[in-house]
Specification:
253 residues; mainly beta; seven-stranded antiparallel sheet; 1 helix
């Protein structure tokens, strides 16, 4: 069992990211090289006012953007869309995208990339495909989440939406909000790995051997396969977090 714990403190400054303008603040969260799945990157990205990331194409990965705060004009393929808190952007292998911060508030997002493991020759309608949606506005109430207790609000991308766009074996991409006194798990991750990023509230992560990790906004956890997943809300405020689960491909894929 292994997991990583990181925070958003001390990001590095990047100038002209992907040929864009202004500065970007970026921090790597987690360590994909420690994991068994096809994870490629976990990044915390901040575009200050006026910052842009130039349009660029991914030739070996697919990407998921999870918006934490702020506003941004997203350029994906030949279209532009404004995105904000709670929005998710899926960009397929060989897709092109860029972004331009909007307004006075910095734009903050998480970037999760995975190695594309599908066929390299894709139908025209699939190559470069993308999806934009809001997870907070589509959330529904669920009880006893993944073996836990209490109730939670869960906004998740439907499997039928992911499959035409993403080639990696994603199981869940969601924004989850645990109500006071509620928990997610405990659950053993036998054939999966999980990324968790806390956006609001407080809680604890239970780990094996009776250890606990305090959770607050800006805390990131990555769970390697065979880990124990068990998150518990604490205090009066809901514990809200982005959650991404990736299956472990069978040998030979």
């Amino acid at each position: 069992m292994a997991m990583t714990v990181s925070t958003i403190e001390s990001p590095m400054r990047v100038l002209g990211i992907h040929g864009g303008g202004g500065e970007t603040w970026l921090k790597e969260l987690g360590a994909p090289s420690m994991m068994f799945g096809v994870w490629d990157a976990f990044e915390y990205v901040v575009l200050p006012p006026g910052g842009t990331a130039g349009v660029h194409r991914h030739n070996h990965t697919e990407e998921i953007w999870l918006v934490v705060s702020g506003r941004n004009t997203l350029t994906v393929e030949d279209e532009q869309k404004e995105i904000g808190s709670g929005d998710v952007v899926l960009t397929s292998y060989h897709g092109a995208h860029g972004s331009h911060q909007v307004g006075d508030e910095p734009f903050v997002m998480l970037v999760i990339a995975a190695e594309y493991i599908g066929p390299r020759t894709l139908p025209v309608k699939t190559k470069g495909h993308y999806f934009v949606g809001n997870l907070r506005t589509t959330a529904q109430t669920e009880t006893n989440l993944q073996g836990g207790r209490g109730t939670a609000r869960v906004g998740a991308i439907a499997a039928d939406t992911m499959r035409p766009i993403l080639g990696a074996p994603w199981d869940t991409i969601a924004l989850i909000s645990l109500d006071p006194g509620s928990s997610l798990g405990p659950r053993n991750l036998n054939n999966a790995e999980v990324f968790v990023f806390i956006t609001a509230g407080q809680g604890i992560a239970h780990v094996e051997q009776e250890h606990q990790i305090d959770l607050a906004a800006g805390t990131c956890l990555t769970y390697v396969k065979d880990s124990l997943l068990h998150l518990e809300q604490k205090g009066n405020e809901r514990l809200e977090f982005y959650f991404a689960e990736l299956g472990i491909p069978e040998a030979g894929l």
